[in-house]
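Action item from last week, closing it out:
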Amino acid sequence: MAAETGFGPGAYGASAAEAPGVPAYEGHGSGTIDISFTTGENAAEVQYELRATYAGPAVRYVQADGTLGAGEVWRTAAQWGAMVTVSGLTDFVGYTFAARARNEMEAVTVWTAESANMNTLPVIDYGLTSDNLEREITPGKVKVGDIVIGGNEAPGITPVGYYGTVTLTFDLSSYAEDDADIEAQYSEDSGGTWAAATLVGDVTDLPTLEAGKSTVTGWDSYSDAGKSEYQIDARVRVRARDEANNWSDWVESEDFTVYNLPGKIVWEWEDEQEWGEATTPAAIAVIPGLNGGDRGFPEITLYEGDGTTLIETYKSVVDVTGWEYESTPDTWVALTSAGIPEAAIDGINRVRFTPPDALDTIDIILTGRMGEVRDLG
């Protein structure tokens, strides 16, 4: 504040400036903090400086554009305005502010005390909005996706019929990426009644993903629906359990056809002559049958050409030593348990054994599913 002095007319001095008030919080935004300060009885010509202290502490000064910089900036209260928006700040960092004043003669007051700690208002992207959030309530942290049916297709069946192991493919999802256990049931009356399904493959500690982890298991329809069903409609349902022992909802497949009727078996001598019901080989007659094992296995009885003299009967019940099956063409694998893998029964691969008494190796073509006794002799 200018005042006349004792040095005579026209000589003026400046009164000391009054310290401003401690900067006060007014509001915040993303990367910004709004503050204000009081000027007391200071004249309009008095200027003010604003200081920010943060992180360390580091000291910067509020610039004319509201950002923080290394250089000191003096402005009048009118130039600062009633509220100062400090911008370019770092989210989750605390800031304190102080102010001081200087008069026209550049006499500077002391800094005010530091203000209360202030923070910006950060924008937090939770990734969920009304546009992209599919709201659903689930009983656990894992769930089963839609079930796709596949497996061994029975030839000549419309619509497609499956036999043996029916594959079930579905996604296992988890909000927490828990491992999951699964269980399944099957129904032969379109979901009217359900029974426990025998699953083939891993059913515990299966991996999941938030986006869904593709999982394949198999339903053993032989065990549950029977090996000699002519044709039935079936469906399965699957549910999953999270690590907290909470079960998801059941998810059902569409109805599909199970056709477990045993298929036709064609026997072929190693000279590639096929024997059907109306033909008998010139030298040896064969009566094929099925004995033992979960899927059955051939029994072969050899006769003289006239069909009267029994040479020997070869069969497999549990001990199948000496028998082999063709896993792929011309690749022979020893049988160590009763039954032939379904993958080898395709009408191309063979089963064989070497009888005693120096008889030639006998090859048998496999078609369909082993399970029918046919008298071809």
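Closing note: The first helix runs from residue 77 to 80.
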